[in-house]
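Morning F.,

Quick status update on the modeling queue. The single chain you submitted on Monday has been processed. Sequence for confirmation:
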Amino acid sequence: MKKLFVSIVCILAMSSFTNKEVNETILNENKSLSMVEDYGKASDCASSAREATYTIAGAFDESPNDDLDFYLTIYDALYMDCYLN
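Structure tokens below.
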């Protein structure tokens, strides 16, 4: 009877450790996936904001470097709007 009790306790202890490791692995995989998605999104947002800023500057026959503060403000607004949505 004592061996049965010890066996049941060991099985329960081992299964709880296994469940914890599996849950941690799943959480780590989900975090890494979201990091990859965020990384790609930031790059896409930077590209689209830069392209839109150059397009706006081209409409006024200027370079974005001519009035840097103005065009950086536009770039920042476009980037943050893209990244946060």
